[in-house]
Amino acid sequence: MDLVTFWFILIAVLWIGYFILDGFDLGVGMLLPVIGTDDLRRRVMINTIGPVWDGNEVWLLVAGGATFAAFPLWYATMFSGFYLALFLVLIALILRGVAFEYRGKHDTARWRANWDRAIVVGSVLPALLFGVAFGNIVGGSRIAPLEGAANPADAGSFNYVGSFFDLLNPFSLVLGLMTLTVFATHGAIFLTLKTSGEVREASRTVALRIGLVAAVFAVAALLWSQAFSGRVAITLPLALIAAVLWLGALWLVLKGKDGWAFLLSSGTILVAVASLFIGLFPNVMPSSIDAAYNLTVYNASSQSYTLMVMTIVAAIMTPIVLVYQAWTYWVFRKRLSTSMIPPQPVLGRADDRFAQTTG
Amino acid sequence: MFLDLRLRLDWSAAEKMGPLESHAQEEAPIMGALDLARWQFAITTVYHFLFVPLTLGTVWFVVGFQTAWFRTGNVKYLKLTKFFGKLFLINFAMGVVTGIVQEFQFGMNWSDYSRFVGDVFGAPLAMEGLLAFFLESTFLGLWIFGWDRLPKRVHLATIWAAAVGTLLSAFFILAANAWMQHPVGYEIDPETGRAVLNNIGAVLFQNTSLIAFFHTISASFLVAGAGVAAIGAWFLMKGRQVDVFRPAVKAGAWVILAAAVVVSVTGDMDAKIMVQQQPMKMAAAEALYDTSSSAPFSILSIGDVAGDQATALIEVPGLTSFMATGSFDGTVQGINDLQAQYTQTYGPGNYVPYVPVTYWGFRLMIGLGLIAALYALWALWRFRGDRAPQGRTFSVVSNFIVLGPLLAISAGWIFTEMGRQPWIVFGEQKTADAVSPLVTPVEVWISLIGFTLVYAVLAVVELRLLLKYIRAGAPEELSDTPFEDSENGSANRMHFAY
């Protein structure tokens, strides 16, 4: 296997890791108003992901960094091309990240309600837009050499020439709805695993309901994606496996086997995303204008020295990261319930100017 | 709307950008995507870097206090850990979320830069993610929620791990930046015209990178030390929790002093390599238009430093020569000579950075840093031995001293980056050639306004939250739920929850 293929796989793995891990905490975030009918319940939900969400989000940053290092032309074309979509994702992640840390730092209803809104919007937007972005990668987007480029055959001149609204094509939107609903379900299943009592019961119902909707979008998106797949013989069976895993996950939710259900919903995400990447290879950003303008692992990659250096770093660091992240999940393995949430720390004195101006 | 904003930005856009603007003017008559992208990078990065130095320094205060508590068992250190830990987290959250933008905006606004340098520049960025971001975020999560889940020793180790993560993060990103100041360990692929890495060791460990690392880290300690000392001084003035906060003032002052020494030494080293690697930046720092031996250092000047002659008001003879060469009568090249020289090497063009920014940025950095060091001496003298005087003047000064080093470190970076212009990668790529070719001004306007608005709102929220938590003081009573208790199942309630 050549280095560029290895890095293509590694970036796929990073995205899969990101979607499985941040997938559930985005899901928990967007379900805040659905399952979290009162503040105590919402705090239970937020605290199930409290210790881990930031570590999960780093998978995205590393996926971005690894793409920059291994496939700079992919990184450059994708993020300049999907400009406004990425801008929205960034704003969403900014508000969401601050919200987790700040929500409990001040004790008025308005303060908490505002941050709750930030968490919901900050979770829905990325979950939807990552799917849309992947739709445009898998399904191809309007990529062409820059007009007047010195060497139009060189991939360095390839740019996204479409508009923001070209990104909102039907296939990509269906894929976006798939990631949105799958993450919501995945989050609800995570909550069944990590809570007890009323929150767990509510999460189970929600997981089943949204899970069935997600199944429809997932089947639609994955079948549609076969039209763009370079390896239908592999990707179609994988799509079917993903569907089976998903139904299995929902069945296990019904049976109350939370851990197995979470494993299977994670498995679904793994298989589904893997099938998209397998169908994409060796392209990284196919052009819908002309196949000659496809960005591929060959024309978009860094050269072998850089890939070798990064391979060594990744080979050493990835196992270490996996071990300590797994340890975190072990440390915080206990289920949470409303009775375990300590009262909100009320700070300051009666003349607290902050409370008066903000509350 | 377009024109209106153009007017408001005019003074800064057209003047501050100075020489570079003239390049842009050729392509885009009105504030084009290039200028907007520059403003966006400046705003998001300067803003991000307000939180970074505070974080880099404060985390080590938290490490220090918690380690002191672990070793002595003295509860005042635990109180300080919790108090500064909270402030640290409020601040860290802002650093993290604004940092996400940093990871992606190279691709968004600077795609031709990303294409040109990705083979080299991407490597340290990816390493930062793998080695540093995972470490910081994972272990900080463990630290925040782990008070009752982890044995004391392990819990202490988590904040150490997170703190090491912040250092690694600084190291890799500064190596990436150093490469832009002084590219090494690469060649240009003759076929594609793009930079290709051929020596990662040279990129990570070149002197430009190592000096920038120690300079930035020590400056960050200075910033955090000023913050800690100022907060402590406020409590002493109020007569609140004096036994807890007196050690904080002293710790803060000692850190400022020690950091100031390292900042000066590394700053001096930095100036000397700058003269070799980017002589134009040094000349622009001093607004030195004509090559001269025994060049003076002007502390203040009047008139237009952007002209081709500046009128110094107060100057120290030979000091610039000393800073640049180590000798009071060393020769320092002037802007005009360098411009001629660069035109010969790189072709026609304007190679002079905008001098007022470099000149005043350089002075602000040094001046405010020096003032902080003097403050530290004053603080240590006042609190020598067991003294705990409650004078008001000291506290008022303390309140302001917290801003000085933060402003200094910002000024330093603005100087460094503006002084490199018109280059984005010195000698290899100009900023004007680095911008995303097809991203429209409208798109950049949207994101520029969006980020700026969100950042402005968050700044207000963060500042108020910080003030609230400072006023609240250190916890009076600590609900001590050690690890051993909670394992027995009796202490079912979480020790800390969002």
TrEMBL record, chain A:
Protein name: Unannotated protein
Source species of the chain: freshwater metagenome
This protein's GO CC annotations: cytochrome complex; plasma membrane
Localisation per UniProt entry: Cell membrane
GO molecular function: electron transfer activity; metal ion binding; oxidoreductase activity, acting on diphenols and related substances as donors, oxygen as acceptor
Keyword annotations of the record: Cell membrane, Electron transport, Heme, Iron, Membrane, Metal-binding, Transmembrane, Transmembrane helix, Transport
Swiss-Prot/TrEMBL GO biological process terms: aerobic electron transport chain
Source organism phylogeny: unclassified sequences, metagenomes, ecological metagenomes
Membrane spanning residue stretches: 6-37, 81-99, 119-138, 171-193, 205-226, 232-254, 261-285, 305-332
InterPro entries for the chain: Cyt-d_oxidase_su2
Membrane topology summary: Multi-pass membrane protein
Automatic annotation (TrEMBL), chain B:
Gene Ontology cellular-component terms listed: cytochrome complex; plasma membrane
UniProt keywords, alphabetically: Cell membrane, Electron transport, Heme, Iron, Membrane, Metal-binding, Transmembrane, Transmembrane helix, Transport
Ranges annotated as spanning the membrane: 39-63, 83-101, 121-145, 157-180, 212-236, 248-267, 360-381, 393-415, 444-467
Annotated membrane topology: Multi-pass membrane protein
InterPro entries assigned to the protein according to its UniProt record, in alphabetical order: Cyt-d_ubiquinol_oxidase_su_1
Localization terms from the record: Cell membrane
GO molecular function, one term: metal ion binding
Biological process per Gene Ontology, one example term: aerobic electron transport chain
PANTHER family on file: CYTOCHROME BD UBIQUINOL OXIDASE SUBUNIT 1 (PTHR30365:SF15), CYTOCHROME D UBIQUINOL OXIDASE (PTHR30365)
Protein name listed in UniProt: Unannotated protein
